[in-house]
Write a structure and sequence with these properties.
single chain, alpha/beta, Nucleotidyltransferase, domain 5, 2 domains, five-stranded mixed beta sheet, 11 helices
Length: 334
């Protein structure tokens, strides 16, 4: 079975071809960083326009790299939420048009389930497991008992971790996207230079909050500005990153102990952060946990993970496909 995956939930236009769930034939990603970088964040209308301009080119390139045509495709999987609705609609309508024209089933995939199952592109992970999905829009702790059988046991109450990375990078004048820029700047800094707060750590609460951490960085910068001083950008970046990583790692192990699970999966765009990967792998080994983390290319938004999720859901008969009624939802429940 060959699956064409399409992902346009935010600011990456992506398409991939996956064969039999484990053989990735192509994985094409067209980034919009040059479009949004000058604004310090994503402009939805510009994102939607760029998806319209590039989605067919990206699909054609994915098919070319896989050395297949649409006649060789058996199933189309497309992200239909959550995300920016102007972006989602481009991918969904493209998938529906292709499905209708080629008489192919089209499966709508929750973007978060794509991240959750992305690890399957590298290696099979036995259920049940506990996943931390951490990205620009989401920070969720999810218990996965089977394909399609998920329970959210903790999530952010305000800013997602990735959003905080972007906003702090903007405060520091580093640019966009903030995650890799914060990590790069922090390599030269002292992570203990500033004692930023670790929020929502009390009473075993499994939810997250990063707005206070972001605000603490802003207050520090305002204090230095009022005193006509400039803090070390590297020290601020390293200290902020360490505070965020502390919370993410601590909460994941708290949840694992509560759920009595020894298999952990870290996924989502922020899972590409080197410090977070290093800390989680080291502590997992020390505590006797199995830890699975996708390669960075499968952490950030990509269509391979959407194809994998579509393959697994379709093969498990956990979804029905109706080309004409599939729609995009910016707040699709998970």
């Amino acid at each position: 079975m060959r699956v064409l995956g399409i992902e346009t939930s935010c600011d990456e236009t992506a398409a991939a071809v996956l064969e039999n769930g484990d053989r990735l034939l192509s994985n094409v990603i067209w980034s919009q960083h040059e479009v949004h970088g000058k604004y310090g964040g994503i402009v939805p209308e510009l994102a939607g326009r760029r998806h319209v301009e590039t989605v067919h080119l990206v699909i054609e390139e994915a098919l070319r790299q896989a050395d297949v045509t649409l006649e060789d495709i058996d199933l189309i999987g497309v992200t239909n939420g959550p995300g920016l609705v102007v972006s989602l609609l481009v991918g969904v309508n493209t998938a529906k048009a292709l499905g209708y024209a080629c008489n192919l089933p089209v499966v709508g995939i929750n973007h978060l389930e794509g991240h959750l199952l992305a690890i399957m592109l590298q290696e099979p992970v036995a259920f049940p497991f506990l996943a931390l999905i951490v990205s620009g829009g989401h920070t969720d702790l999810v218990r996965a008992d089977a394909v399609g059988d998920y329970k959210v046991i903790g999530r952010t109450r305000d800013d997602a971790a990735g959003e905080s990375f972007d906003k702090v990078a903007k405060m520091l004048g580093l640019g966009y996207p903030g995650g890799p820029l914060i990590e790069r700047a922090g390599r030269e800094g002292n992570a203990a230079a500033f004692d930023f707060p670790r929020s929502m750590m009390e009473n075993g609460n499994l939810d997250f909050s990063f707005s206070g951490l972001k605000s603490a960085v802003r207050r520090l910068l305002e204090k230095y500005e009022a005193e006509a001083r400039t803090p070390s950008t590297a020290d601020v970046a390293a200290s902020f990153q360490e505070a965020a990583v502390d919370v993410l790692v601590a909460k994941l192990f708290q949840a694992a102990e509560r759920e009595n699970l020894k298999r952990l999966v870290l996924t989502g765009g922020v899972a590409a952060n080197g410090r977070l990967r290093q800390r989680l792998q080291a502590e997992s080994e020390e505590r006797g946990y199995e830890c699975f983390i996708p390669r960075p290319v499968f952490c950030t938004d990509n269509a391979a993970m959407i194809a994998a999720a579509a393959y697994n859901k379709y093969r498990n008969h956990s979804v029905s496909s109706d080309v004409l009624t599939l729609d995009a939802s910016s707040n699709l429940a998970f």
